[in-house]
Amino acid sequence: MTNEQNLAQIGVVGLAVMGSNLARNFASRGHTVAVYNRSAGKTEAFMAAFGETGNFISSETIEEFVASLERPRKAIIMVQAGAATDAVINQLADAMEEGDVIIDGGNALFTDTIRREKEMALRGRHFVGAGISGGEEGALNGPSIMPGGPVESWESLGPLLESIAAKVDGVPCVTHIGPDGAGHFVKMVHNGIEYADMQVIGEAYQLLRFGAGLEPAEIADIFAEWNKGDLDSYLIEITAEVLRQVDAETGKPLVDVILDAAGQKGTGRWTVKEALDLGIPTTGIGEAVFARALSSSLDQRAAAQGNLPTGALKTFEDLGISREEFIEDVRRALYASKLVAYAQGFDEIQAGSAEHDWDVDPRDLATIWRGGCIIRAKFLNRIREAYDANPELPSLLLDPYFNGELKDLIDSWRRIVIVATQLGLPAPVFTSSLAYYDSLRAERLPAAIIQGQRDFFGAHTYRRIDKEGSFHTLWSADRSEIAVES
Ligand code: NBP
Predict the structure, then answer these.
(1) What is the pTM of this model?
(2) Which residues form the active site (predicted)?
């Protein structure tokens, strides 16, 4: 039912997929919702389709839209990230008043959010960058929401967002993440973890399909079975669904007719760029982003097919392992690699939080990611428990529970990396995650030789294990060592 008399508790700007679903979600929780879209046609279509399903107030101009909001006015922007978002923010800020709240629910780069918050603060407007995960289904039925911005905004916005967020054990999947860009930073890393999670599932599929020679429908059954245990997650569940799907036109498994070139919109790439700047080795996410890029290099792949020497590859039969053992090994390698990706993602969030003084609590993330979002998984409960037990945990891998799990996983993980190599099947995240794991636990790393090389060619100096200070060897002279003032 349209409601022209009352004011709206919340407004949504942008009525494409995400905005219209979010507006419907707010309305379904009993809120009156103001809606506006740049092209009036979309607003009309929205009202025609859903106007009767809740209390909506539609407007044709941004001024009308702002006038239809209760004070302090709260409007969520769900438009294309970048210039479109800037344009809408400025239009809203012009029409709004001191203390009103502008929320950007799009996938903004967190540095844009920091800039926008500063600009809005100068104009007396509150600006909240809120990461929203869960795609269109989540937006409609309950997403996971990661709002940043000033804590005062959270006080008025919190109950509204809690009402539409997914709930797990009665706990809403939303909390104030931290000031300015914290919400969008955390959403960015969430998406990065999602890339790694999807890639490790892809690698497991690849090994089962082209290593063990299983059919998509058989692998769907295996994934459905895995979904009952430690790997219980939305992504494993939907993978089983995708694998079961048969193409109506050809009668083949759908997965066999989908072009194997993965797209990306940028949040994975941002996560890795930021990790490079922070000096955090998010190798799993990095390999996942590169794997998508490689998959899309279709010309180069076509040129390489059949034209690169393989060396002596083995067949699955040569390896003499049972299918059952292999399937269980793959499951364990997947679990271990996933654990590494999450550990690295949480490391990046903690480093970002320290760098920007955000004070992000990792326990909050493990809590609000349990529902609504794409990486929702049973094992996030374990992550929450790990940080509950020790908020200063140096790495998730060192939590006693996960450490115990790793004891059970490690042999399978090593076997799978070896087998993948012998079969010539790429498993970049399985492989690089194991290299990360072995690097992390190594007593000595080859970094000592790198420091030696750097000192040799560039007098970059090195530190010693047995005394304080910086040192340089006179490589071009008598090769004696001198202490260097740092
Ligand atoms: P799109 O990202 O496809 O954006 C379309 C909307 O942006 C339309 O309402 C369009 O209005 C509006 N818009 C554009 Br384009 N330029 C504008 C401008 N200069 N001024 C005003 N409005 C403008 O929509 P979406 O897929 O619903 O996503 C919305 C946001 O949510 C994005 O930031 C996206 O990254 C994020 N997100 C999407 C998903 C997902 O699963 N799709 C998940 C999580 C987050 P028009 O009708 O007049 O052209």
Answers:
(1) 0.96
(2) 187, 194
